[in-house]
Amino acid sequence: MTDLQADAVVIGAGxxxxxxxxxxxxxxxxxxxxxxxxxxxxxxxxxxxxVIHAGLYYPKDSLKARLCTRGxxxxxxFCESHGVPHKRxxxxxxxxxxxxxxxxxxxxxAADNDVEVTRLSRAQIAALExxxxxxxxxxxxxxxxxxxxxxxxxxLGDLHLVRNTHLVSARRAGDRWELTxxxxxxxxxxxxxxxxxxxxxxxQGVANRIVGLTExxxxxxxxxxxxxxxxRSPFHHLVYPLPEPGGLGVHVTLDMAGSARFGPDxxxxxxxxxxxxxxxxxPGVAQKFAPLIARWWPRVRPEMLTPDYAGVRPKLVGRGxxxxxxxxxxxxxxxxxxxxxxxxxxxxxxxxxLAIAEHVEGLLQ
Length: 365
Fold this sequence. Notes:
The chain is of the alpha/beta class. Helices cover 26% and strands 29% of the residues. It folds into two domains: 2-46 and 151-218 and 323-364, FAD/NAD(P)-binding domain (3-Layer(bba) Sandwich), CATH 3.50.50; 88-142 and 220-315, D-Amino Acid Oxidase, subunit A, domain 2 (D-Amino Acid Oxidase, Chain A, domain 2, 2-Layer Sandwich), CATH 3.30.9. The chain is built from nine helices and 22 strands. The strands form five sheets. The chain has a six-stranded mixed beta sheet with strand order 10-3-2-14-22-21. Strands 15, 17, 18, 19 and 20 form a five-stranded antiparallel beta sheet that branches. β2 (8-11), α1 and β3 form a beta-alpha-beta unit.
């Protein structure tokens, strides 16, 4: 049995785990990142819209609001300094005459969070996006897109990533943590001062292996399917309808090459185990999406859409409940020194990643 030492261990090599590990390494800690998969960022971090969110939707002073707006600024700066492909292309949120109250509620939330938005008339929407049919809308000029894989590569740098390794158990041993790991068929013991559970979909499962930890919320899973647009995209901005329960509505996003895709929807999964997830995009996604998209893009037809990929959101509340905030539990919550658990890190987790890393580092201090 191999016995190893480190200052800090981050469990999970998604975008948030990598950002936290980088922050701790920059604070002169010896950091090890544990990842159960073959490579970093293979789950939620690789299966999303790759949007840099402005911070429009979240309640004032919530973690999502504060970390999204702070993270957006940090992320744009990071992309510039590290050569990560990104574009600040802006986003339209569009609606029709009977949806004025919902549009105004988003505008108020943006104002509460000090996020810039501009109200748009039908004529102004048409000037920005000629093929979009909407009566009213908002323009978010600071929303953008990012190449998430290149971002994760830049975060990883020369950090110490241990792949194909699972946590068996974690317990306090004196003033340090003792982690029992299984990797490559070999059992490992790793001692460290700090443990960060950033396992995303698996965070609750990891938390259940921490001896003495009782503050573990339930896990709910919501799958989101995406469909690719065949042919050239007519859009120059991201275009979003009004949010729906559990998500932001089936919207159009663009990749760095300008290709368009639509999604995600919200498909609540009955199973609570991430191990049972099927990441295949639903075969009927084109027929499902076309009438939803047609509400604001009348030219769409099902044959223009092709099932693309799917992702799964780790949620803290189930179907019908109001969206929950991020949950980032440090010692004041669970009473265990040197431990931070991150639960329910869904959108805007990518945008907020660098700010989440700051927050976690502060909790560990």
